[in-house]
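Troubleshooting entry. The earlier prediction with beta-D-xylulofuranose gave an output that would not parse, so I re-checked the input for stray whitespace and re-submitted. Clean input:
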Amino acid sequence: MSNMREIAKRAGVGIATVSRYINNTGYVSEEVRAKIQKEIDKSGYVPNALARAIFTNSSKTIGLMIPNITNPFFNQLATVIEDRLNEYGYTIFLCHTEDNKDREKEYLEVLKSHRVDGIIASRAQLKEEYLNTKIPVVSFESEIDQSILTISSDNYKGGKLAFSHLYQRGCRNILHIKGPKIFEATELRYKGFLDKAGEKNIGIDIVEFETDFNTKKLEENLKRIKNIDKYDGIFVFNDIAAATVMKYLKKKDIHIPRDIQIIGYDNSFICELLYPELTTIDQNINEIGDLTVKLVLELIDGKEIEIKNHIIDISLIQRETTRD
Ligand code: XLF
């Protein structure tokens, strides 16, 4: 495989011209472009992306921090973000944090050393570290700081909608399976659910799960629920956790929705794969992905944008785990 010097020699031009052409940093005539490209094609030359990033101050790469790639919601979101970024000539550098601060810290260093142009952090656990980086950051769900743009769905409203739906379908003995305290989004769902239940004077039992991606742990967490058959309605903090609850109920011969009605959260693709199909709250994944990409690219372009918390509306999607 050749290097830039050899390409320049064979094309009969200077190294600086080849560099201008490859990095798109200045004028190169059509004729010379064609000559250089011909030599590149013949030689199989692959430009060194990192060297190019240092030279041009742009790697055309965005770091994407995802807490859990096995959760269908996050893999759908990552796909939307990747597709949109590709349309603008960017690729993603995917970092799987597993909600672990140390992993997130390590990845942040890796992203810096790869000179990513921007970072999309989802369910971030770090604060100072993001504030201290000069790289533009957009956050999904975690309010890292007032100076950092945040996008989240209307989790509080989602919790309220979930309660109203169960209540209207006659549920009075209700359990809420909430997410870990460190998830800002699910804390809001929990609050919305309880506030709405309070308006109707309905007491809610609460069980907290430790994770949303380790299914073994989820199954252990389920065992903490005493006499699950005493409930007639359950709101679970996300779809993947709701799927484990459904399996658990079926093993106990509890019929959904006749004995217990269930609502999940996300409207990820698994809702329609489950039997019965899962009623859920739709977080508009496309809108979240579109807005996140738009904002991170605007920050990279140095546009003046108002730094605030963008809240995306949600809606309830009724399927078969709740009654008509
Ligand atoms: O962080 C929250 C919890 O899980 C996120 O929006 C999700 O609902 C995705 O499944």
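This one parsed fine. The chain has a mean pLDDT of 93.
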